[in-house]
Amino acid sequence: MIVRLLAVLTASVISGTVFAEEVKLAVTTSFENSGLSDVLLPAIREDTGIDVQLLVVGTGQALRLGEAGDVDAILVHSRAAEEAFVAGGYGTHRREIMYNDFVFVGPIDDPAAVGIATSAADALQKIGEEKPAFVSRGDDSGTHKKELSLWRAAGLDAGSFTGWYREVGAGMGASLNTASGLNAYILADRASWLNFGNKGDLVLLYSGDPALFNQYAYLPVNPQKHPHVQNDLVAQLETWLTGERAVELINGYTIAGEALFTFNAVPK
After folding, report:
1. Distances (CA, A) of 124 to 112, 129, 186, 210
2. 3-state DSSP call for residue 176?
3. What is the distance between the alpha carbons of residues 55 and 25, in angstroms, rounded to a whole number?
4. What is the dihedral of CA 191, 195, 200, 206, to 10 degrees?
5. What pLDDT does residue 20 have?
6. 206 has which bridge partners?
7. What's the CA angle centered on 31, arms 101 and 79, to 5 degrees?
């Protein structure tokens, strides 16, 4: 067995093959649906030799994976939950990487008049009054947490809604597909919406309120709680994600000429 392993390693060196080191990174479905991972991951491997294995889940589940030590790091978008994760000792720190925004998407005929809303709260108050079909992620994701906080800010309790309010318990892409099929309203992140190929009769109706800001942050899992995590590789990945090539690729990622993310990591 040892001789066979040495033979494989020797052959790999001769052929120029490099064995990448792996990092398990929990990311949100909205990040995956944006398509940005298809741009970043090959570049990360090329520059660092790190093979990033993505576990695509909602923010709540990503944080639970980190708490259990099932991943090495997390890239999510729910600041209060992230800060609680770090305060609980599960993460070493929180590093902001990039941002975009949330948008209200809905039927082109816009029965709730969301297109003329003056704020995110006004948009939801119009929906709450008209009660058209509305699709909620309902999955404890960052987008779901944001949606619930926006309903509260609008003075409405999503837990009291019935019939017209559909909690699907699914990721961003699946939720958008449901909204398209029902011709319903939905809160989505801009990147997932722009990259979504089954828009049907849905259109972007409202955006621009500062309350819809959507920050993504990187959280290394604490090796003091989980000594098996790849702490050195996680640090290398963070250096890359906050470096010049990441700036170029993140800011340069567009669909139909529209940028999906803006890099905003602050140098240490």
Report:
1. 9, 8, 10, 15
2. helix
3. 6
4. 20
5. 65
6. 104
7. 60
> Full-prediction pTM beyond 0.90?
no
β-strands 202-206, 185-189 pairing: unpaired
The size of the chain, in residues, is 268
Low-confidence residues in the chain, pLDDT < 70: 1-20
Alpha helices in the chain (DSSP H): 2-15, 29-34, 36-48, 59-68, 79-87, 120-130, 142-153, 172-182, 190-194, 231-241, 244-252
Cβ atoms of 77 and 212 within 8 Å: the answer is no
pLDDT score recorded for residue 71:
97
Count the helix, strand and coil residues of the chain and give each as a percent rounded to the nearest 5: 45, 25, 30
Mapped onto helix, strand or coil, the DSSP state of residue 258 is: strand
Residue 133: both structure tokens together: 């079909």
Residue 243 is classified by DSSP as: S
**Domains, the chain, with CATH or none:** 2-99+214-263 (3.40.190.10), 101-212 (3.40.190.10)
Q: Strands 73-76 and 134-136, how do they pair?
A: unpaired
Residue type (1 letter), 203: V
